[in-house]
Amino acid sequence: MAEAGVITFVGDSLTALGHWDEWFPGETVRNFGVSGDTTDDVIARLPQVVEEAPSTIVLLIGTNDLAWRRSAEYIVRNIETALVQLRRDLPEAYLLVQSVLPREREYADVIKDINRHLWQFAPTVRAQYLDLWPAFALADGSLNPELCEDDLHLLDAGYDAWLAELRPALETVRSHAPMSSSIPLPPEHLTRHRRR
Questions:
Q1: List of E strands, the chain
Q2: Between these two residues, 92 and 174, which has the higher pLDDT value?
C-alpha cells in the first residue's frame, strides 16, 4: 500500500468476520465491524472511529437495515450522514464506501437503488465508491451461493472475491490525495442504472 497509517474497516458482521490484519500485513489495522450493526449503529460508533485518527476508512454497511425493512431512502441518508461526518472530522483521510452486497433476489432492486445513490454521492465528500455488485451478484440479482453460506454471510471464497476487488481499489484510493471522483464503474453497470 502506498500510504502508511491506520486503516479502519467499518461495518457489520461481514466486516467483523474479516481477518483484515492477516490480509493486509504491514498495515496498522483496526476492525470496527460489529455483528448485527445497522447504519444507525455505525453512526453512533463514529466517534470511536474518529478517535483512532485513521488515514484510511473502508465502509460497508446497510444489509442489516434491509432485514428491518428500512427503505432505500433511509439507508442512503444514514450512509451519507456517516460519510459527511467522517469527512468533517477527518478531512485528510481516504474514504472508501463500498456498495451494499446482494442478498436474496427480492432485495435486488432496493439494493441497486441504494448503490446508485451512493455512487452519485461519494464524490461530494471526496470519497471513492467501490462497486462490488458485479463480483457477487448472479444475473437475477441474488448473492452467488458459491460465495456465501446463507444468502448473507460470506464463505472464504466470498472474502477472496471481496479482496480481489478491494486491494486494487485501496491502491487507487491511497495513491493520490483524497479523490474528487469515484472509481469508474464498468460501462454495463452504468447502462443498467440509466435504464431504471
A1: 6-11, 28-33, 56-60, 94-98, 127-130
A2: 92
